[in-house]
Design a protein that fits this description.
The chain is an alpha/beta fold. It has helices at residues 12-34, 47-53, 75-91, 104-115, 140-143, 162-172, 190-199, 212-216, 254-264, 274-312, 340-350, 377-381, 386-401, 406-417, and strands at 36-37, 64-65, 68-69, 96-98, 121-124, 147-150, 153-154, 159-160, 176-179, 203-207, 230-236, 240-249, 315-316, 328-332, 353-354, 356-358, 371-375. It has 2 domains: 50-286, 3-Layer(aba) Sandwich (Aspartate Aminotransferase, domain 2); 291-429, Aspartate Aminotransferase, domain 1. It has 14 helices and 17 strands. The longest helix is centred in the last third of the chain and has 39 residues, at 274-312. The two termini are 36 Å apart.
C-alpha cells in the first residue's frame, strides 16, 4: 500500500485515552443493561432511532427551514424534517411545531426570546418547589434578564396554589406565565391560571419536558387545549426519542409562527444536530403507533411503585392523591437538608439501582436534600409491569430500610433485569436481539 502523505501512527498515550473512553462507554452501557435506570429525566432509544442517530447526518448542516436553506445538499434532510413537522403537529395536536431544538432548555430559551424582552416580568414555579433550573435566575430566565416572581405552592397537592397564583398574576401583570416543573407529579390546574394570565394580556408557556410523552399519549393533561399558548419539551424523557427538544404552539397566527421559528434559528441554534432530528422523527412515528399504550403503562407503573414503596414503609409524598399521576414518585429519607437523599441514592447505585437525590418541599440545599425522585419510564420501556414494581420496591427496602449489603442486593437486581432486555413500544419489536447500549 502506498504511503499516505502526512500520515503518522498515533502515540500510545493518545490511543490509550481514546480506548479508555471506549471502555468507559461500554461500562456505562453495562451499568444500565444490568441495572435499573430510574432517573426521571432519562430514557432509551429504539434500534431504528439509534440507526439514524449514528448516521452520516451527525456532521451535516441544514440552517433554515425545509425548502429555505443556507446550505446545499439538504434535499434529503428537507424530506426528513418535513415528515417530522407534520408528525409533531399530529402527535401533539398542535398548529405549529419546530423540531430543531437541541434540548428542552434551548426550547425554553427560544420561547422566552419569542415572548418577552429583557426586563419583562415573568411568573414561574420556584426551583425549591420543583421548578426547573431554566425557569430560574440561574438559567434561561436569567439569561433573558427577566424579572422573576414565583407562585405560592400547595405542599399537600404538590402544585401551584391556584388562588395565590392567580392573585399574583393579576397583581404583577407579567408578560409570560411559565407553568411546569422538573418535579412533576400531577397535572397543573392550568385552565384557572391561564384564564388569569390571559385576563392581563400575558402569554402562557407550559414546559412539558418531563411529561411530554404522557401528554401526547393522552394520559396527563392537554396544555394546548387548557390555555397554554406555547408548549416546550424534551424529546428524551417520557417521550422516548434521542436527546433534543420541541417547540409547539396552539396559535394559528403566522406572525407568531415566524417569531418562534426565528427564535430557534438564528436565535438559539445554528447547527441543530440533524442526526438527532432524524431520530426524533422516527420516535414520533413510533409514538403515533404505540405512544398511548406506553404512556398509560408508565402512569400505571408509577402509581404501583408509589403504593408498593409505601407498603414497604417508605415515606412517599402525596399519599392523599395516590402518590402520582405521572412517571415520577418522590420519597423522603430523613430530615430536611440532612443529605439523606444523597446517601440513599449512593446506596442504591451500589446495588445497581440508578436514581437521583432531589430537593423536596422544605429543603434548601441542592447537594444535601432529603429526598429521591424516581422515574419508571425506562423500566416500562423494557417491559416491566405492576408486578415488577413490587419487586423493585422490595429491593429498595432491602438496601435502605433493612441495610442489606448493596453488593448482595445487586445480584438480585441483575437477575431481575436479565429478564427485561428488549425495548418495547417501537417498530420491529419481535426482531430485536437485546437491550441497546
Amino acid at each position: 500500500m502506498a504511503e499516505i502523505p502526512g500520515a503518522w501512527s498515533p502515540s500510545e498515550i493518545n490511543l490509550s485515552k481514546a480506548n479508555a473512553v471506549i471502555e468507559a462507554t461500554k461500562a456505562s452501557g453495562n451499568l444500565y443493561r444490568n441495572g435499573l435506570g430510574m432517573i426521571a429525566s432519562e430514557n432509551i432509544i429504539s434500534p431504528m432511532v439509534q440507526k439514524v442517530v449514528c448516521s452520516d447526518l451527525h456532521g451535516r448542516y441544514a440552517e433554515g427551514l425545509p425548502g429555505k436553506r443556507y446550505y446545499q445538499g439538504c434535499d434529503d434532510f428537507d424530506t426528513i424534517e418535513s415528515i417530522g413537522i407534520d408528525l409533531a403537529k399530529k402527535v401533539f395536536n398542535a398548529n405549529f411545531a419546530n423540531i430543531q431544538s437541541i434540548s428542552g432548555t434551548v426550547s425554553n430559551i427560544a420561547a422566552l426570546k419569542a415572548l418577552a424582552k429583557p426586563g419583562d416580568k415573568i411568573t414561574a414555579v420556584s426551583t425549591a418547589d420543583g421548578g426547573h433550573i431554566s425557569h430560574a435566575r440561574m438559567g434561561a430566565v436569567g439569561l433573558r434578564d427577566l424579572d422573576l416572581s414565583t407562585y405560592p405552592w400547595d405542599i399537600d397537592r404538590m402544585e401551584p396554589d391556584v388562588d395565590g397564583a392567580c392573585k399574583l398574576i393579576r397583581e404583577l401583570n407579567p408578560k409570560v406565565c411559565l407553568i411546569g416543573q422538573s418535579v412533576f407529579l400531577f397535572p397543573t390546574p392550568l385552565k384557572e391560571i391561564a384564564a388569569a394570565a390571559h385576563e392581563v394580556g400575558a402569554k402562557v408557556m407550559y414546559d412539558g419536558a418531563h411529561v411530554l410523552g404522557l401528554i401526547a399519549g393522552g394520559q396527563f393533561q392537554d396544555p394546548l387545549r387548557e390555555g397554554a399558548d406555547i408548549m416546550t419539551g424534551s424529546s428524551h424523557k417520557t417521550f422516548p426519542g434521542p436527546q433534543g427538544g420541541f417547540l409547539l404552539s396552539s396559535s394559528q397566527d403566522d406572525s407568531m409562527h415566524r417569531k418562534l421559528n426565528n427564535a430557534i434559528f438564528p436565535g438559539t441554534c445554528s447547527s441543530y444536530h440533524l442526526h438527532h432530528v432524524a431520530g426524533k422523527v422516527i420516535a414520533l412515528a413510533e409514538f403515533e403507533e404505540y405512544g398511548e399504550t406506553y404512556a398509560r403503562d408508565i402512569v400505571r407503573n408509577a402509581q404501583a411503585l408509589g403504593q408498593c414503596l409505601a407498603a414497604e414503609g417508605f415515606d412517599v409524598l402525596a399519599e392523599g392523591r395516590n402518590y402520582t399521576a405521572s412517571h415520577q414518585v418522590l420519597t423522603r429519607h430523613g430530615e430536611i437538608d440532612s443529605g439523606a437523599g444523597a446517601r440513599a441514592a449512593q446506596l442504591l447505585e451500589d446495588a445497581g439501582i440508578v436514581t437521583n437525590m432531589n430537593m423536596l418541599p422544605g429543603d434548601t440545599k441542592a447537594m444535601t436534600p432529603s429526598g429521591l425522585r424516581l422515574g419508571v419510564q425506562e423500566l416500562t420501556r423494557v417491559g416491566m409491569g405492576v408486578n415488577e414494581m413490587a419487586e423493585v420496591a422490595r429491593l429498595f427496602a432491602k438496601v435502605i430500610l433493612e441495610e442489606k449489603d448493596p453488593s448482595a442486593v445487586k445480584m438480585e437486581v441483575i437477575e431481575l433485569k436479565s429478564n427485561f432486555q428488549t425495548i418495547r413500544y417501537c417498530f420491529n419489536e419481535e426482531e430485536q436481539s437485546g437491550y441497546v447500549l
